[in-house]
Amino acid sequence: MKLLLANPNTTQAVTDRMAEVARVAASRGTEIVAVTGQVGAPYIATRAEAAVAARETMELMANHAPGCDAAIVAAFADPGLGGAKELLDIQVVGLAEAAMLMACMLGRRFSIVTFATARGPWYREAVEYHLLTSRLASIRCLDAPFQDIAHVRAELEALLVQLCVRVVREDEADVIILGGGPLAGLAGRVKHLVPVPLVDCVAAAVRQAEALVALAPRKASERTFRRRAAKPITGVSPALARLFGRE
Amino acid sequence: MKLLLANPNTTQAVTDRMAEVARVAASRGTEIVAVTGQVGAPYIATRAEAAVAARETMELMANHAPGCDAAIVAAFADPGLGGAKELLDIQVVGLAEAAMLMACMLGRRFSIVTFATARGPWYREAVEYHLLTSRLASIRCLDAPFQDIAHVRAELEALLVQLCVRVVREDEADVIILGGGPLAGLAGRVKHLVPVPLVDCVAAAVRQAEALVALAPRKASERTFRRRAAKPITGVSPALARLFGRE
Amino acid sequence: MKLLLANPNTTQAVTDRMAEVARVAASRGTEIVAVTGQVGAPYIATRAEAAVAARETMELMANHAPGCDAAIVAAFADPGLGGAKELLDIQVVGLAEAAMLMACMLGRRFSIVTFATARGPWYREAVEYHLLTSRLASIRCLDAPFQDIAHVRAELEALLVQLCVRVVREDEADVIILGGGPLAGLAGRVKHLVPVPLVDCVAAAVRQAEALVALAPRKASERTFRRRAAKPITGVSPALARLFGRE
Amino acid sequence: MKLLLANPNTTQAVTDRMAEVARVAASRGTEIVAVTGQVGAPYIATRAEAAVAARETMELMANHAPGCDAAIVAAFADPGLGGAKELLDIQVVGLAEAAMLMACMLGRRFSIVTFATARGPWYREAVEYHLLTSRLASIRCLDAPFQDIAHVRAELEALLVQLCVRVVREDEADVIILGGGPLAGLAGRVKHLVPVPLVDCVAAAVRQAEALVALAPRKASERTFRRRAAKPITGVSPALARLFGRE
Amino acid sequence: MKLLLANPNTTQAVTDRMAEVARVAASRGTEIVAVTGQVGAPYIATRAEAAVAARETMELMANHAPGCDAAIVAAFADPGLGGAKELLDIQVVGLAEAAMLMACMLGRRFSIVTFATARGPWYREAVEYHLLTSRLASIRCLDAPFQDIAHVRAELEALLVQLCVRVVREDEADVIILGGGPLAGLAGRVKHLVPVPLVDCVAAAVRQAEALVALAPRKASERTFRRRAAKPITGVSPALARLFGRE
Amino acid sequence: MKLLLANPNTTQAVTDRMAEVARVAASRGTEIVAVTGQVGAPYIATRAEAAVAARETMELMANHAPGCDAAIVAAFADPGLGGAKELLDIQVVGLAEAAMLMACMLGRRFSIVTFATARGPWYREAVEYHLLTSRLASIRCLDAPFQDIAHVRAELEALLVQLCVRVVREDEADVIILGGGPLAGLAGRVKHLVPVPLVDCVAAAVRQAEALVALAPRKASERTFRRRAAKPITGVSPALARLFGRE
Known about the structure:
Six copies of one chain form a homohexamer.
Chain A: E1 2-7, H1 12-25, E2 31-36, H2 47-64, E3 70-73, H3 81-87, E4 91-94, H4 95-106, E5 110-114, H5 120-129, E6 136-141, H6 152-155, H7 157-171, E7 175-178, H8 186-190, E8 198-200, H9 201-215, H10 238-245
């Protein structure tokens, strides 16, 4: 099985980190194809950046999905997820989507913990988008500076663990999602330091993508995610234009 | 007062139609600056097209907002609205946002009626995005072919009126929003044929933008729509890059 | 355009204050007709007082709406709003209704800040009545004595600003509504002291009333706010009895 | 035990009917004091009429509650209920409130069936006011003429039973509330003709009022229904003014 | 009237305490038949224990309901309530169900206060099961040791009162339910020490059961709680097997 | 990896069918241990039967989980799931839980289709229990007789496919879950006959259980699903008593 890990952030080092975690999380025989956005922000934190990223997600998928069995939107709040589900013939899953559904099996209410306050409003919109507010305990963002997005996981590890512990006590979280690609791999490292289960969003997405491939559902020909009529579209890459044009 | 009407659809004729309706709806002294997307679909109907449009909205605003007092996202389900609210120093309002809030004053529950079934899921996500599901009666889409998006309003007028009447009876709608820029102006023409108030989304947005300018609230320096830290961004127009970079 | 500002509180000085703010907020050419309740409490703070006020609102409107283009229920939690919408042939809007819808464009979640704890439960019912709980961050009431309801705005200004700042930090409010007619005009005075937008409920109502008049929707002949069959009613003013009787 | 049945409708014959049903439903030893509104509509069906009735409810209670152990707002959507709970030192319960809570024990979702379409929106607001939308299956109103409100129960009996049966099948109601004082007593007559339990709102209110008296909870001295500070109020009856003034 | 008080906890002393409170709360002429579970935990605090208790509730009812007019599931979060409502021909009510519905008449939002933290998640599920989350202020559990479940009420009285007072101030509770059979009778003892009404769940259940009997609704022959087709069932008591088999 | 498939229904043939589907769905190297309830109904359809099954689920798990890596509650509405999550040191997942979360990735709103009307209310409670009502389109039950629960899948195949197609059209379902162990394997057989994706609950549960094992989260030591203090429990199997007693 081949999984496309499409990172609409433009930082290659974060893609590399996610790919590494994805390969460890994957079943034997699963190959990870990891690609990085060319247009946009080094790491997406706001709705404005996510709006740029949403199109980049579709560009990455149009250009790299052929030959893959499923695709992962590898930015936490899933920019472009709905569009990608409409356009592609393979299954598509987002980091936030997969992590939240996984968290639902591990507790009644989950919190999302991340490393930058700017991400809060965008993350909340992701929970609302997935209509999972009923399962949300809180979203909590560390308000601490860091040097390098590629090493933010290591730089802030101790502070993030402290925040997770507070979230359990203060927000009544039953399970915590570590939100954001740059935190990939952290859950496994610190899980014995926090008294509730931690969810790694990259590992969750890989396993959910595999599960979808195994389940082998048909793509919808009616209702919300069905392929739409061919449509001319201008100003995008030839591959994306072909996808819209259904050639 | 100068209002930017930024249409992320790529059909100039639809922009012209909306601008005409906007000018009629505006207060004396309000000038409408109408611009059309260069990248994307001739008329946006799906999430995939909306994801392309979201970035185009921000491009249009980055390039044309300077000198304006407020801006309107002139595509019904408001692609790029959140991002534009973050980026711009002026107020921004969306067609769906303005129409729904206006509808809330005219009835307890509104329906949205539009002319293409492909729009249904995307429109529903817009209602959910604005957290107004509690006020929604239904979303109903005409399933009829049309020749030309620029004249869809006239081509389908009779069928749309019929659908509106059915929506009042069957879905218990207290008020109906005619959704989509191509339907701008229709509400005024047919209002006596439907037994509940109709909301024209372009007229609503113009009046809400004017109201926001009149109210003159400060832009937030904290919480959800505050301007964020400067961020390098690649692959976008110089104007948009400058906006992200806060130059 | 002529707008009726119907204050069901019995304090003329508060009406005067609201009328002054309304005139500043209004478009050129809009005339404000301000009237004050004769029956009820000097300032409404509880459900019991609001129940008396609801009828007084309808009395004021029955007697003063003729000749006006729209009417405003000029008490924050909108006593009598639904009844007035049913009875009158012109559009009717409430202070809380207008302020909340305006706030929805300025942030994801609003708080309401007011000057007397007794108002809390009644204000919460107003948010629930408008089915906007999904957009509510909190309702916060200053618990401080004041001398004169007509000058409460000035007396408590500093404390209200402090409370607003706390509400942003503690309740995650994106925008704050200053609730209550006696606070009319305060938002404009202190807006640079609070880090999120403030909404003045009187200014919002004036602009929303104007927008409704401009939009010129028909009054419903079916569903929730349609005029009802003529009904004899006893014990009310002749004007109100005529309105019920549809003479 | 003495229960005040305060009917803010102005039709004595409906009060008589309700009092008769109340006496049958009451425990031995419970006395029913039934009073009728002097101001307002012969039977309340709209929000406008309910706004007039809300004050009349408080007038009736101010004048007749002394000496009673609990009071019932004897109009289905409970006009003035919140105000009465604030003002009186005895427990107060509404017909809709009692019927809905009773219905919650008899099924997962209840429908309300009544005899006049004008009542639909007002009844829906009553369900929303009590925050019980999660338990509502539907509100259904017979659209049939009747001669005399005092005999509507008998005139429309067969049609109402038919409607109840349809509501079970079409709306998935587990239990049905017959809404409106004029239908008091009908549930008992026709219960074997409808396949789910029927709730008589007058009988429910009597039993709930008795239960509240038996439970003997204290009146709140803090939070939502606590007695408020004395307040001067003008234009109401001396008894009501005294209640507001806490003499 | 004869009411079955079926306690699926296995502690006879708690049954005795509840029976005593029930007898005081009951109307004259009501007889209380109190029975205690033979299988399960001495006092149920977790979902696992509640799952064992759910079946025990049905066993107790199958064996003791004959001859009774209504039955009470005498453990706070109502284990087995839905099943018992399906199986029995008499009305069945739960302690949590009755207490919450009673609380709804005494305030807008209730809190549940209990004596053991382990009960929190299970109690929350009970509120969710009854679809009453909209009326919930909080669930708060004392975290203090006690010696004997039969005397926990007396041992922890002072601490529980303190917690109730904090819940009013911190969680904005309008009314407090003292949750759990072992606290039966406490509400009456301490009601003047807490500034909002307290609800005794046993007293509430007795009065609600009596009200249901008085209302005399039919048992459903359609929809959610109707008796189902006869079904063979193995491994249960002969009485319960007969109930399933509809002999 | 070893997965326990614990069927609290008492029909061995249904267990066999589920085990067969589970083995096909599982990854290479996953072993399925399938066990069948001894106490209860041949196939669970009501809340009463589910209450018996909840305890049987825990009995099966107490006796067969040792040596397994994760456990599946193999009855659709997940009787005993919460209790099993509390008691066991391995991960536990339910058929409904897994199927619904899987469905959430395949569409915005799912319907559940099953073969017996008696199941409707119980299934709805399962959706409510998982707080996923926001994602539910409908629950639809075939109302057709069948001969043998072990072959109901084949007997009713054509009728179920017809119902699925109607559900897509009438209820706007984006994805359909075939609910109930006896339907295991049907989704794969008929997926090209229904225009939206179908979810097989057994296959979904196997893959979700594998994903949980792969993710390797810690078991909570605080909050909702933490292991509780040892508790004596009577009348259950020695294995289950040991689990409660934490020996």
